[in-house]
Design goal:
The chain has 9 helices and 4 strands, in the order βαβαββααααααα. The chain is α+β, with helices and mostly antiparallel strands. Strand 3 and strand 4 form a beta hairpin.
Length: about 230
Amino acid sequence: MAREGDLKLLGLVVSPFVVRVRMALSMKGVSYEYIEQDVFNKSELLIRYNPVHKKVPVLIHHGKPICESLAIVEYVDEVWGGGAPPSILPADPYERATARFWATYVDDKLFPAWIGVMKAATEEEKAEKVSQTLAVLLHLEEAFAKCSNGKAFFGGDSVGYLDLALGCNLFWFETLREMFDVELIDEGRTPLLASWAQRFGEAAAVKDLVPNVDKAVEHAKKMRRVFVH
């Protein structure tokens, strides 16, 4: 078990990618020092430990940085894997590869689509990004049907890698609903994801790490001032 002095996480409380890592660390019961970052005024610490992208999250373990949230989640699962339940990644090689594929799909397709809703300057642009987001979620509805094998989560009976990859975005969906009256996951279009989202939000390892929607709204307004002129 790492001591706080050995493990630090540079993050932003409303970043879905940071939330993803914090959920993984929580699942493993790992203690760490959390250091909040201002992404509008990047610190020397962030630039030093992630000079390539200068983005959060960055996990610093014994002075060595690990960047990119999916890579960090895998690192956490491996380093604190021995006798520390539960495993985050599937044990089966095919299921593990499939989970990685869909997790990458979430980051490459879902995130740009829903953040595009927030950045949209016109109603037409917003409608286009909402349509893109809904199309991606339909694919993820199908993925859940296949990956879950009729169980509660993508990972089976308990939260796993793909659950974290998608679930860390859910509070932003609520934020978009609050700001723009946009409903992205509902029982009509994606009934499996709607039920899954409720179970995920109630999971012990993750429920206390979901940021307050008011904080996300505040951050979103700052971002809109940057992107929407």
